Amino acid sequence: MNEHTNLFGDRQALPDPRPIGRETLRDRHARRLVAGRHPLTNLPLCRIEGATCGTCQHRFRRGGGARRYNKCALMRNTGGPGTDLRLTWPGCMRWTAEVSS
């Protein structure tokens, strides 16, 4: 716990900024990567060299203008940040090479 001095000079304990047991999205993604799982799909990582989400056929972009977000067609997309895809993430075992037009 953090401590704070109020206007009267009394020291008070402040609660932690994040509730106990609550995992952030960033923490969950990092934990899955360390465990050898894809951060979004939770599938095992692809073992092909250079396979990333940015080079996968399942990647698509949603939105328009400055608010364009990368998503994965393998996932149910909520429209929120929980299903946003990072192009630099390693591909999952269902990675398929992007087809050139």
Description:
- The protein is mainly beta and 101 residues long.
- It has one helix at 25-34; strands at residues 2-5, 11-14, 59-64, 67-72.
- The protein is 10% helix and 20% strand.
- The protein has a two-stranded antiparallel sheet.
- The termini are far apart.
- It contains one helix and four strands; from the N terminus they run ββαββ.
Number of helices: 1
- Please give the share of residues in helix: under 10%
Please state the CA-atom Rg, rounded to the nearest Å. 20 Å
Question: Whole-Å distance between the termini?
Answer: 56 Å
Return the string of H and E elements.
EEHEE
Mean pLDDT value: 87
Number of strands: 4
Low-confidence stretches: none
**How are strands sequenced across the largest beta sheet?**
1-2
Structural class: mainly beta
The shape is elongated
Largest sheet: 2 strands, antiparallel
> Which range does the strand content fall in?
15-25%
Highlighted features:
101 residues, mainly beta, two-stranded antiparallel ribbon, 1 helix, 10% helix, elongated
Short summary of the structure?
With 101 residues, the protein is mainly beta. The protein has one helix at residues 25-34; strands at 2-5, 11-14, 59-64, 67-72.
